[in-house]
């Protein structure tokens, strides 16, 4: 932590307000957020925003007469810094259910995308972070829609805004350069490229957005009976279930591949592509993966444990598979998602990876992993014949409220909670559902959703 304190003091004393200082402040903010100190991180991020506005990063260099002396490479660097900051601000805002102070005047429709970073495999006129920021703008609208408690179940079943968001998302997807679309064939090359984190997030956040948009509809499959639904409403719910399962499966399958390229936990000796090997440093920086793992797990868990048999049988018949095969791949997907969270949690503490040992002290991944282990426990009970009803709680077990502990910035071996706990950093949470009858999620809108499901 001595290096952190020295860096912070140096920035405080800095007299020259420059792009380099903005970049340094951004790194400090990112460091404190990852270390479980959102209060300090928010302070550093606010300072970053203030200096960025002072330097007018929200104005494209081509529209800034005072910057005409810059080379094209220097202009591109300013654009890159702008979009990285925009991504950071937006990510923090979307992960907190309370309003985060995103500077409104920092938003811009005029800053161009910088060119992609030098990479022979993936040259493009635009870089992936630009398209990622555009996706986060759509996700912001989706989250506002998904978090809002509706007046009635009918508004979940039929909502024009829901359809408009799906169209907006589809339009965004068509505008993403094909070389940034992740496939099994190009995954290895991307993992060795400078674009890897953004491209992974492009793929996973797109899938996650679809899961989020359909979450409340998925929940209705455990609440409503087919006899109470019109054919169009039943079809509507089936489409939501199918899309959610497909996207959750896509996220889990990517996790399986990432784990396969992490030889320290797979003990594989067959690695010939050295550039694709993933280390603790990769997992520590792939923090967005943890959020998408949680959202995917929420879909798989709910379908497995709560969705009514009428919907599951219909899905199985349309997918031309069997119940046993469906439940098997869901269990496998949940294990891969859990293993990924193990890797993320241990990388933040030790930089030594494990898929079997938990971190000794809580970090931002811990509540996500606690919840997922509860989901898997409930799945085991369902397999044993103990399916939990939608609004049923286990009165014999004390409720657990999952929250994120705020840690000190001391050495990892001494890190302890030092302040009030906060909401875990995810996009949507559980929308009022309890896992395994007693595990609750801390979130500003959770209790209101819980009351909604109980009264409708």
From TrEMBL:
One of its GO terms (molecular function) is DNA-binding transcription factor activity, RNA polymerase II-specific. Transmembrane segments: none annotated. Keywords: Metal-binding, Nucleus, Transcription, Transcription regulation. Its main location: nucleus. InterPro entries: TF_fung (IPR050815). It comes from the Eukaryota. It is found in: Nucleus. The keyword Metal-binding applies. GO terms for cellular component: nucleus. This is Transcription factor domain-containing protein. It comes from Physocladia obscura.
